[in-house]
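Design review, sub-item: ligand-bound model
Attendees: FS, YL, KQ
YL presented the inputs for the flavin-adenine dinucleotide complex:
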Amino acid sequence: MNSYWEPGELSAIKTWEQFQSGDISIYDQMRDFPFKIATSTLSPYLAWGDISVRSIFYSVMKNDSPATHTFTKQLIWREFAYHQLIHFPSFPTRPLRFNFERFPWQNDAESFERWTKGLTGYPLVDAGMRELWETGYMHNRVRMVTASFLVKHLLVDWRKGYEWFQHTLLDFDVANNAMGWQWIAGTGIDSSPYFRIFNPITQSEKFDSSGAYIREWVPELSNLPAPYIHRPWEAPDFMLEELDIRMGIKYPLPIVEHSRARLRALDAYNTIKGTK
Ligand SMILES: Cc1cc2nc3c(=O)[nH]c(=O)nc-3n(C[C@H](O)[C@H](O)[C@H](O)COP(=O)(O)OP(=O)(O)OC[C@H]3O[C@@H](n4cnc5c(N)ncnc54)[C@H](O)[C@@H]3O)c2cc1C
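KQ shared the predicted structure:
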């Protein structure tokens, strides 16, 4: 872990100063792309209290510009999460939309384990889960994709995902983690509706178009060219053979088929839709 994160106040200040004099200017355009980390990576320092959110906020406001607004908004999301936790202390354990208590989660143990190990057969999901296990960090875009995959494609209760992130994230934060999971599961305040289901393939094509992030974390696919690195099961046999990628052996086949999983999730949602 030491090779990925240096704890402590001095390191927190250094990280902040580097970000403020560099990537904050491209944060707005680049923050969604996991390969080039253009975000601050301050979250572990904030979560552990190594740096104060107020000092960051006032320091940004001194050099306020359109480029910094998007970053300030993220700090405000954090405040929003804390606000929700104060008003709803059961935020990490109970859905704020109570009808989700009756959601028919399947909670299949093997599916959950494959998700935790980055063996779902969806390269972007697997890259994120492996990055998390190795480094204790995962890019926000990939957190959204992996979390959505768990609760919608695999129908595993968001609280299981919350607990796994609690176990593995260096920046674990009760309020932010609860908000992240409730937002994705559609169970929280102002959250993404349950029926909005991220497509892990198009997300991968859009936010990791060259496949550079996947190549870093899923080395068994590293030689696959870009169109197929997002959907290796569609690569022609001769290519897979040449690259020694045996689907189902060296790299898993998709744990669920996307369009079928999507319909299954919507059917599950329909059982509680419109109820209180
Ligand atoms: C399912 C899920 C779980 C999450 N769990 C956590 C968690 O346990 N701890 C945590 O700090 N963040 C969590 N997040 C929010 C977000 O992913 C991280 O804060 C962000 O990726 C940290 O990277 P950064 O410091 O480079 O962020 P930057 O983009 O540089 O943002 C600066 C700071 O703003 C705050 N922030 C940014 N985005 C969010 C957000 N969406 N919600 C709340 N605060 C935000 C963080 O404190 C972050 O350090 C979660 C998101 C999701 C979707």
